[in-house]
Design a protein that fits this description.
Pfam families: MAPEG. This protein has helices at 2-6, 11-38, 51-57, 60-71, 76-88, 95-116, 120-145. The chain is mainly α.
Length: 146
């Protein structure tokens, strides 16, 4: 049983999305820190700011990466949980692994769209498709444990 869990295919897309989230973190920092410097923001003087403060003082294109990084802390948490259920229930291989890879691919595409052009219609379609993949994984997890 232990070996089956370690080798569950669904663990790979989970790790891939975590790695992508870290790529977005680095992209955000590489974009946002120079934008803050250019805007004259002194990090040592900031106390209790909110995201809206940065939205007002930094270029929108710099903020898009930060917004996307925040999005990767939201719905994907459900993805990680459902993938863990699928791995633990020994149903994380085959079709569920493929659906998980589709979810990751759609989230990466969503990140790239939001961080570059930020077209809402494109983002919405990618979000909707990734949500459908998440729903499918959730249904499969429910069938495995109930």
């Amino acid at each position: 049983m232990h070996d089956d869990l370690i080798h569950s295919e669904i663990l790979r897309p989970m790790v891939a999305l975590i790695a992508w989230t870290l790529v977005m973190l680095l992209w955000m920092l590489a974009t946002r820190l120079p934008a803050m410097k250019a805007a004259g923001v002194d990090l040592s003087q900031l106390v209790g700011t909110r995201a809206a403060d940065a939205d007002r003082s930094l270029p929108a294109s710099a903020q898009w990466k930060a917004h996307n990084y925040n999005h990767l802390m939201e719905q994907p948490t459900l993805f990680y949980a459902v993938c863990a259920v699928l791995a633990l229930s020994h149903t994380g291989d085959g079709v569920n692994a493929w659906i998980a890879w589709a979810y990751v691919g759609l989230r990466v595409a969503h990140s790239i769209a939001q961080a570059t052009t930020n077209r809402v219609q494109t983002r919405f379609i990618l979000f909707l498709l990734s949500s459908l993949a998440l729903i499918a994984l959730t249904l499969h997890a429910a069938m495995a444990v109930f």
